[in-house]
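user: can you give me the structure for this one chain? tokens are fine.
assistant: on it. calling the predictor now.
[tool input]
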Amino acid sequence: MVKNRIVPTLFAYDKVGFVEKLKLLSGFVQDIHIDFMDGSFTPKSSVPLSDMIDVKSSFNINFEIHLMCYNPEKYIEEIKNLGITKAFIHFEVFSDLNVLNDVIDRFFENGIEVGIAVNPETNISLISDELLEKADSFMLMSVVPGAEGQKFMTSVYEKIKRLRDYSDKVMVYVDGGINDSNVQELLETGANVLCVGSFVSSSKRPEENYNKLVEFL
């Protein structure tokens, strides 16, 4: 049986901010979802992957990574050096599904599981049966990628239902604008993993807010 999870999202523009947030979260979580942006797919850039490598070794935390960038395959070696075994790549950066399938295979060949991130404006009906079989999870964005503190888009509920209609086995992630006012409905609708940014990692009471969400599991 799938165990539902709350996973804090770590979003930082530089190494100093990355270390500060990592220290903050390391005291009460085992899993962290890292948002990585190279400034191409999103307007802003985050801390480079190379700056994360010497930092991560000091913390006993499992990282997953959300690659908000074009050509995500070029980061495979750095992801391996970070010891990350789960990465999300964006459906929207591929105009050809054959290329997407090939990139997924390259991640698999390097021991990295792949999830597919889907932007708010992307129609869930574009997800093919083949892709549903190939990817182990899908992450439905409930905000526009690239910035913290955005308003939660309720249209994600219908996307969760549609994805669940296609498959009751796939892992459904939701990322963006999640807090104690929507977590219960998200889980009841069919989400498995909720990636939470500003409500936890950028709040004044991160551990308290994290525990509030965990109570809904």
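assistant: here you go. Residues 97-109 form the longest helix (13 residues). Residues 5-214 form a domain with the TIM Barrel fold (CATH 3.20.20.70).
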